Amino acid sequence: MTTRVRDAGQNVGVAPEFAVDPAMLDAISPSGDRGGIVLGSGLKGEPLTVSALRSTPTRIVLVGGLYLARQVALRAMAVGAWVVVATGRPAAWQVLSQAAGGPDGRPSPLVQIRRLSPVELPRPSEDAPLLVVTDGGPTPQDLFPPRSPWQTTVYVLPYLHPQAGATANAADLVLMQRLPAGQAELAARIWRLPPQMMRQLTTLKDDQVVALGRNLWRPLRLVTTQKEQQLLGPVRRGD
């Protein structure tokens, strides 16, 4: 049985199954549980899945490297989501367009790589949910706050900054990779973490992540497929 990562207060866990081209699913992602995004595996090797594309506007904060952010975006694509990336480093995100491109080499309309400025977004629906990635540094502008059902906005933070506290506190789910001691102390202040959790954040391995939410603290190990390795390289902490 698949174990879902969920926020008990916000129900970041269950989503319907979305339609997706089988070739894309085979190319970039393992299968999920009813449209869920497979994050990795637990301590016993059990798959851990989060259904972040849901009927409620959703915020996710990623604290860590570009590898994790791109893997989450690829797996959202694999369950049928539109993906819009607003970034100051567009070249680093072209791998998404490469993964979604058709056999004729033409870019897919399912992926848009944009600059860090407001643009009109596709209208999300249950059949075509929308993942918006804001890759704007440690103090991101809230250019695309989730305002409608089936829209999830992901904020990519390369490290924790005191001015990112409001964004972090508003998140339904936080995924954190290893943090230096000073940033772990900041995380403890933002989320009121006890000392043992704060210390755990400083000892995570390169392929480990902590999923944090209301009534949720779940360490997991990132797992990558062969196709993802070809696109992203090996699992790692940094960019």
Secondary structure elements and their pairing?
Blueprint: E1 3-4, H1 22-28, E2 37-41, E3 47-50, E4 58-63, H2 66-78, E5 82-87, H3 94-100, E6 111-114, E7 130-135, E8 151-157, H4 165-169, E9 173-176, H5 181-191, H6 195-202, E10 208-213, E11 216-222, H7 226-232
Features:
239 residues, alpha/beta, eleven-stranded mixed beta sheet, 24% helix, globular, disordered N terminus
What does this 3D model show about the protein?
The chain has seven helices and eleven strands. It is of the alpha/beta class and about 240 residues long. Strands 1-3-2-11-10-9-4-8-7-5-6 form an eleven-stranded mixed beta sheet, with helices on both faces. The chain starts with a strand and ends in a 7-residue tail after the last helix. The model is unreliable at about 1-35 (pLDDT under 50).
Major sheet: order of its strands? 1-3-2-11-10-9-4-8-7-5-6
Shape: globular
Mean residue pLDDT: 83
Note the main sheet: 11 strands, mixed
SSE string, helix = H, strand = E? EHEEEHEHEEEHEHHEEH
**Number of β-strand runs:** 11
Task: Please tell me how large the radius of gyration is.
Answer: 16 Å
Multimerization status: single chain
Class per helix and strand makeup: alpha/beta
Span between N and C termini? 33 Å
What proportion of the residues form beta strands (DSSP E)? 15-25%
